[in-house]
Known about the structure:
Layout: H1 3-14, H2 18-28, H3 37-48, H4 52-61, H5 72-78, H6 88-101, E1 106-109, E2 114-120, E3 123-132, E4 137-141, E5 153-154, E6 164-168, H7 176-188
Antiparallel strand pairs: 1-2, 2-3, 3-4, 4-6, 5-6
Amino acid sequence: MTFQAYLDTIKAKTGLGPDDFRRLAGEKGYLTAATRPGDIIAWLQEDYGLGTGHAMAIVSVLGKHEGAGLSAGQKLEAQFTGTKARWRSTFDLLLSTLIEVGGPVSLAPTNSYISLTKPTRTGRAKVAIVAVTGDRMDVGIKLKDAAPTDRFAASGSWNSMVTHRVRLTEPDLIDDELVDWLRRAYAAA
């Protein structure tokens, strides 16, 4: 199905076009940098009965709003504002450690987390993700064959792009065990 076909189907089902959804999203406060695509998808599914694919088409249409055009550097800096600022040095240490034990790493920040990827022959492969709150820094690790532990829990519904999740509640919790998991994830990617 083409993108236009998605929009045509949405119009037939709801009577609304892209401009209508842009206006409605603005009225609901969904045109800000803090809005996650999942928030918009949930609204469209609940209020208009759209499926995920059709809702994603509207998310794409709404992509030109405050915060959507932020550069990767701006998105990265936004991850460490306010109460989350205390985690910046921990993130920088985690990144430099991963580079030291693994190799080159690229950052792909979104509005809610930062992907850490390594170069491959065919592009890039995800190694880990980092999500920061005021209280903790969650590190998601992609390591398919590793059994979960008390500290390295299965990622579950937290993020399907990684297999494990460790919650750092203190900035100094980057230890040899975490470094070993990251080294193994880098090698496996």
